[in-house]
Structure prediction request, 142 residues.
Amino acid sequence: MKWSPRALLVRAFIAAHARLYALTDGRIGGRMGALRILLLTTTGRRSGRPRTVPLVYFEDGERLVVIASKGGDPKDPAWWVNLQKEPEAWVQIDGEKRRMRARRASVEERARLWPRIKHENPAYAAYEKRTTREIPVVLLAL
Prediction:
């Protein structure tokens, strides 16, 4: 696969963000303005190797909510495709790591959560307009 210069830059930024977050227990990279960031480590669906990405998250009771937007790209992000094959993952929030299980929100859960998520992070409304796919709302639970 040939990567565009933009894609390489995005990959490098994501990798640096994840490393800084992990090294500082989220003191660097744990927030983006008012938005909170976690590290999600999935198992690569083809390689079987751990894959870590920083993601904005929201809380829904005891569950965490992450959005598989990929900036409005027509394709799902790799971390979501990985979770569909192996839903067990590691989540790091600040210095705390925990094993969690992912699943796509039901139609009812998405209908309840999606307006709140777009209100808290209006970028998701822009991403929604950019794509024809329904952006998955992903729930993470212990």
